Amino acid sequence: MIRDTSAQDSVISAPKPWRNKKFAIWGGLAIAGVIGAVLLLSAWRGSTQSVNLARLSVAPVSRGTLVRDAAVNGRMVAAVSPTLYSTAPSTVTLKVKAGDTVKRGDIVAELESPDLSNELKREQASYEQLEAEVARQRILARKQKLLARRDADQAEIDRISAERTYQRIETAGIVGVVAKIDFLKAQDALKSAEIRSKHAELATGLENEDVDLQLKTKISQLEQQRLTRDNAQRRVDELKLKAPVDGFVGTLSVANRSVVAANTALMTLVDLSQLEVELEIPESYVADLGLGMNVELDINGTKASGKLSALSPEVVKNIVLARVRFTGEQPSGLRQSQRVSARLLIEERPNVLMLPRGPFVENEGGRFAYVVDNGVARRRPIRIGATSVSAVEVLEGLKEGEKVVIAGTDNFENAASISINN
């Protein structure tokens, strides 16, 4: 006979209805407590940490005029900084040293060029030769004019003589003393003398014009040679290099007694009486810049104003060079290459919502901000517009009067909310 398991079983009586209901109520309360604890824990974990208010910088959203500007650095440069070059292959003798003060017209270097010296001598000799030829041509011109005048006068005398002979024969012929043939000969001789006299006078005029033209040609050749000689003299005079401005010697590009080729840079002079500021402007600002823009300068604590006078068309390593010219009196004591801080005043935007500029712009990329409300800083999406050195424009996401954490958010780790303790 096979045994069953009835000996191992025990009868359990069914619980009373009121006990089941009690257990259900207590179980529901327990579950609700667990859920509440979880919610509290999740809320506490949403503000992953609490931060002391002293470690943060909080500013209210305000409405006002935003002056859009840019802070850049630069250096002092000479507006007039000429470089002197060699004018010919030569040997250089320097008369100054780097840093020496010079006046306009002072000789700063001398060049020795035998070729130019010999060329000047040749041109001078050619000029003197042509000068002598012009003098001789003047004498020849007067001589030829005298000969032409003599021939004309002689022809006129012959005409007068022939005319007298004709008149005498004509008178004798009337009374029948002279033969008709002699009368005709005297008449022909008079006409011939008149023709020769007339032609001699015309030939004298042409001869005068001819000799005048020859003399003018010689004078033109002399003038041309004079210009050539003067040019050679100028090139020789340029072998003595003179300072074109008052200032000091900036740099020397060659050593003393060096042999240099033509157009070799020898030295640079700096005129400290006319200085400008060369700014290094980030490429991102270039589209907003324009000539004549106002600039505020800070030179070792000294304030000055200027205007943008030049803008380089070339971008080098994301930097564009610009020149600023002083609008007022140039500050005293300035030096070449002295460092300068500048503020470019790009534009003004009135009646805009704005916040003081802080690290939150860079940390959040200008897309989020932490708004403080009842001791909790909550992360909120925003949109910013124009920025300046000290403020940013708020386009969306914030209202006037709200308080925003502008510094100290670098450790928030993009948390949705942060508790702030006093």
Could you give a short description of this structure?
By secondary structure, this protein is α+β, with helices and mostly antiparallel strands. The protein has helices at residues 17-46, 114-174, 180-237, 360-363; strands at 50-52, 57-60, 62-78, 83-85, 90-94, 101-102, 107-112, 240-242, 247-252, 259-260, 265-270, 275-282, 294-299, 302-311, 319-326, 339-356, 368-373, 376-381, 383-387, 391-396, 403-407, 417-421. It has four domains: 50-66 and 350-421, conserved putative lor/sdh protein from methanococcus maripaludis s2 fold (Beta Barrel), CATH 2.40.420.20; 72-77 and 271-348, Elongation Factor Tu (Ef-tu), domain 3 (Beta Barrel); 80-113 and 239-270, OB fold (Dihydrolipoamide Acetyltransferase, E2P) (Beta Barrel), CATH 2.40.50.100; 114-237, Orthogonal Bundle (Helix Hairpins).
What do these coordinates show?
The protein has 422 residues and is of the alpha+beta class. The chain has 4 domains: 50-66 and 350-421, conserved putative lor/sdh protein from methanococcus maripaludis s2 fold (Beta Barrel), CATH 2.40.420.20; 72-77 and 271-348, Efflux pump adaptor protein, beta barrel domain (Elongation Factor Tu (Ef-tu), domain 3); 80-113 and 239-270, OB fold (Dihydrolipoamide Acetyltransferase, E2P); 114-237, Orthogonal Bundle (Helix Hairpins), CATH 1.10.287.620. It has helices at 17-46, 114-174, 180-237, 360-363, and strands at 50-52, 57-60, 62-78, 83-85, 90-94, 101-102, 107-112, 240-242, 247-252, 259-260, 265-270, 275-282, 294-299, 302-311, 319-326, 339-356, 368-373, 376-381, 383-387, 391-396, 403-407, 417-421. It has a 6-stranded mixed beta sheet with strand order 1-22-18-17-21-2, with no helix packed on it. It has a 6-stranded antiparallel barrel with strand order 3-12-15-14-13-16. Strands 4-11-9-6 form a 4-stranded antiparallel beta sheet, with no helix packed on it. A hairpin with a 2-residue loop joins strand 17 (368-373) and strand 18 (376-381).
